[in-house]
Specification:
CATH topology of the largest domain: Glutathione S-transferase Yfyf (Class Pi), Chain A, domain 2
Strand content: 5-15%
Number of strands: 4
Radius of gyration: 18 Å
Helix content: 40-55%
Number of helices: 10
Distance between the termini: 45 Å
Low-confidence stretches: none
């Protein structure tokens, strides 16, 4: 059985892994959701040597041995190969990895918007810097990143990066759009029309049976003010 370990009270980076698993209808145990944050802490504490720096990580069996895989892009690349939602073509899979790692870049910048000074300091203690960071991110980085993914989706006909077949990049782009809509509703409403292929990809992912079932369940946690995508009205503008 595949185990996913991530903080139980936020979507966060773990949601990028969950969405791919749910879309592919791969059975897994969401261990900290089932057993509490104490179980996650207890699982991480005794690990030593080469170990996850932070959640999310998965544990699974590979060639008869239990292995631990961390980092969203790394997890999704392995899952795609193991469960058939990659390209099954090395040059195309390398392109998918490139796109997936770029999603991780966006997510890191998103977090830096509301924590531009330090991750251990409260938002209220770095609010002035966050106002500056948010303006730059809204005006320059959102169109730059979304335009990049729009171009990628223009390379082949179909709603997904691979055309008619969805991949882990598509489920991650879905979550990216959802997160940005939550964080910057005014800005996203103003610019979404510029990225029709990206929005079409988002909508196609939303229509996948596994995604529809997951989002309708109580296992799908809404965005909140403790996660990566946070809505502070003062940081949003069209």
């Amino acid at each position: 059985m595949l185990d996913l370990w991530y903080w139980p009270s936020i979507p966060g980076r773990g949601e990028f892994v969950r969405l791919a698993l749910e879309a592919a209808e791969v059975p897994y145990r969401d261990r900290a959701r089932d057993e509490g944050v104490e179980a996650l802490v207890a699982d991480m504490k005794p690990r030593h040597g080469i170990k996850p720096f932070a959640p999310p990580y998965i544990t699974c069996e590979v060639e008869g041995r239990e292995v631990t895989i961390a980092q969203v892009g790394h997890i999704l690349t392995w899952l795609a190969d193991a469960h058939g939602f990659g390209a099954s073509d090395l040059p195309k899979d390398l392109e998918l990895i490139m796109l997936q790692l770029t999603v991780s870049d966006v997510v890191a910048e998103v977090h830096a918007v509301h924590h531009p000074v330090g991750v251990s300091a409260y938002y209220e203690d770095q609010k002035d810097a966050a106002l500056v960071a948010a303006k730059h991110f809204r005006e320059e980085r959102i169109p730059k990143f979304l335009g990049y993914f729009e171009d990628a989706l223009s390379a082949i006909d179909g709603p997904f990066v691979l055309g008619a077949k969805w991949s882990h990049v598509d489920t991650s782009l879905f979550q990216l759009v959802e997160g940005l809509r939550f964080m910057f509703p005014k800005r996203m409403a103003a610019v979404e029309a510029d990225f029709p292929k990206l929005i079409a990809c988002h909508d196609a992912v939303a229509a996948l049976p596994g995604i529809k079932a997951y989002r309708a369940s109580d296992r799908c946690i809404p965005f909140n003010q403790d996660g990566i995508f946070r809505h502070y009205p003062e940081l949003d503008a069209a």
